Amino acid sequence: MNWGTKLILGMASFMLFIAAMVLIMFNSKKDALVDTDYYEKGINYNKVYNRKEQTKTDHATPEVQANRDVIVIRFREHAKGTAGLMRTSDKALDKAVTFESNMNNQVIIPASQLKKGSWRLIIEWISNEKSYLYEQEIIL
């Protein structure tokens, strides 16, 4: 086999590789890591920013302890809101929990049904008629 034949075979195999990658890309499902409502979230980001800043200003950052069985969130004062658990690797595993803190200003979320790994905990709550937002990465 001379060098011309090797060159043609190399080019043909490269073109087949590129064509296969294009077909795989077009036949794959949508990217699960991209929000479908990113435009609305961008417009409303000022509200999110204000809630995060309110948390810092009032020193209202909750204390989060996570282990395999439960996630315990301790607030400084009575709180009512939602806790979102987002799995960055699979949007189908995301979960939202509505809560109201108990007498000890704690919220206990069962975590035994959640997959092990990294989760993003997003807590939105109202306390003393003020809105707060806090985000934290947790490992189960």
UniProtKB/TrEMBL annotation:
<keyword id="KW-0812">Transmembrane</keyword>
<keyword id="KW-0472">Membrane</keyword>
<dbReference type="Pfam" id="PF05751">
    <property type="entry name" value="FixH"/>
</dbReference>
<feature type="transmembrane region" description="Helical">
    <location>
        <begin position="7"/>
        <end position="26"/>
    </location>
</feature>
<dbReference type="InterPro" id="IPR008620">
    <property type="entry name" value="FixH"/>
</dbReference>
<protein>
    <recommendedName>
        <fullName>FixH protein</fullName>
    </recommendedName>
</protein>
<keyword id="KW-1133">Transmembrane helix</keyword>
